[in-house]
Design a protein that fits this description.
By secondary structure, the protein is an alpha/beta fold. The chain folds into two domains: 141 residues, Leucine Dehydrogenase, chain A, domain 1 (Rossmann fold), CATH 3.40.50; 197 residues, 3-Layer(aba) Sandwich (Rossmann fold). Helix content is 41%, strand content 14%. The strands form two sheets. Strands 1, 2, 3, 4, 5 and 6 form a six-stranded mixed beta sheet that branches. Strands 9-8-7-10-11-12 form a six-stranded parallel beta sheet, covered by helices on one side. The longest helix has 21 residues. It is globular and about 55 Å long. It starts with 23 loop residues before the first helix and ends with a helix. The structure holds nicotinamide-adenine-dinucleotide (NAD). The site of nicotinamide-adenine-dinucleotide (NAD) has 25 residues, from helix 5 and helix 6. Nicotinamide-adenine-dinucleotide (NAD) binds next to helix 5 and helix 6.
Length: 376
């Protein structure tokens, strides 16, 4: 029997919510009370006491097909933060998959890392059983904190996995190289839009972050004769790549405000805020980092500078294209390349609508995406 608390509740909530056993905070952390809730179709909580698994799978939309999106293994400050991340990231996947023209909805899984219970094969198997219980409504893939080996391990228990190591000539595997190729094609589209030609010879391009995506982009750009300016917090990596590909290095602090034709942010998110936008000295931004705008209002701020901006989830969809085509169609690498060619076309469509409607490209992209998932 739950104890009653004396006094009436002005908003008419059941009295047990006000009992000492149910704190207001816990009540407020229900997914549909979160500001990031967007009519998600389902938010599933899984746990396994034996292995310490705690995981959340958020399915935002299955309008276009099974909800696809990676699994993030992360040490969250609180469970509420994990719910918030799952809600936000799964919605992002709905938009990304729709704009990439994939027959996939949007979903995301997060595993709450626990320092006391390190990731183990048993925990991954328990996680895989959780995915399996959703019977194909959610298809998982690689994301932050999950390696290719982890994905292989999950794939031993459930078939609902995209991005497994493929046979030669087939789609799938590490999403990085396809993301890099898609971003490179997006950089060319941005050059065409901002400079009047997609010929990159002599075009000054600053790349921030030289990992799987940024390093790959730099290789493509160098092969086309672009003048590279490279920055990474790992300065030795930047110096080595500049030596190998030609070009010069810049400090990670300065790369965002140097004078160049195009800036390609391929490191962290939230790079564009009120301060950094005011210091930009480029004509276009086209990079692979996720969530580049720090706040929604930065879209308008950036638009007012006149800088051409490639919305992040449109230009960086190459990785999900690669793994989704493996899962959906058992496609070839040639099929993936053909699909990646649609990224610059989509960007041009966005920029045309942005000019016509006098709205920031990211706002236009969101509206297009919502239409594509039946939520216009
Ligand atoms: P990565 O870890 O391989 O590389 C990131 C690089 O950025 C590292 O070399 C790191 O040292 C550097 N870095 C970190 N902070 C920096 C800073 N402040 N200034 C300069 N360099 C910095 O990661 P990745 O897979 O290349 O991903 C890069 C970005 O692209 C991330 O935002 C990721 O979410 C996004 N993304 C990646 C993929 C993919 O397929 N890998 C797909 C979509 C989006």
């Amino acid at each position: 029997m739950v104890p009653e608390v004396a006094g009436s509740d002005p908003v008419g909530r059941p009295s047990w919510i006000k009992s000492p056993q149910f704190s207001e905070n816990l009540y407020m952390s229900a997914p549909w009370d979160q500001p990031d809730f967007d009519d998600h179709e389902g938010v599933h909580f899984f746990s396994d006491a034996r292995t310490g698994l705690k995981a959340i799978v958020a399915i935002h939309s299955s309008f276009r097909g099974p909800a696809g999106g990676g699994t993030r293994y992360w040490n969250y400050a609180s469970s509420a933060d994990a719910v918030r991340d799952a809600l936000r990231l799964s919605k992002g996947m709905s938009y990304k998959n729709a704009m990439a023209g994939l027959n996939m909805g949007g979903g995301k899984a997060v595993i709450l890392a626990d320092n006391a219970r390190p990731k183990s094969p048993e925990l991954l198997a328990a996680f895989a059983r959780s995915i399996d219980s959703l019977a194909g409504r959610y298809i998982t893939a690689q994301d932050v904190g999950m390696s290719q080996d982890d994905l292989t391990s999950v794939g031993q228990t459930t078939p609902y996995v995209a991005g497994l190591i493929p046979e030669s000539g087939k789609a799938g595997g590490d999403p990085g190289p396809s993301t890099a190729l898609g971003v490179y094609l997006g950089v060319k589209a941005a050059a065409h839009q901002a400079l009047g030609s997609d010929d990159l010879r002599g075009v000054r391009i600053a790349v921030q972050g030289l990992g799987s995506v940024g390093g790959g982009v730099a290789h493509y750009l160098a092969a086309e004769g672009a003048q590279l300016i490279l920055a990474d917090v790992d300065e030795a990596r930047a110096a080595e790549l500049a030596q190998k590909l030609g070009g010069r290095t810049e400090t990670p602090e300065q790369i965002l405000n140097i004078e160049a034709d195009i800036l390609s942010p391929c490191a962290l998110g939230a790079v564009f805020n009120e301060k950094s936008i005011g210091q930009l000295r480029v004509k276009a931004i086209a990079g692979g980092a996720n969530n580049q705008l720090a706040r929604p209002e930065d879209a308008q701020r950036l638009f007012e500078t006149g800088i051409i901006y490639a919305p992040d989830y449109v230009i960086n969809a190459g990785g999900i294209i690669n793994v989704a085509l493996q899962y959906l169609d058992d496609a070839s690498t040639d099929d993936v390349k053909a699909k990646l060619e649609e990224i610059p076309l989509r960007l041009s469509e966005i920029w045309a609508a942005s000019a016509e409607q006098n709205l920031p490209p990211s706002v236009v992209a969101d509206a297009m995406a919502r239409k594509l998932i039946g939520r216009a």
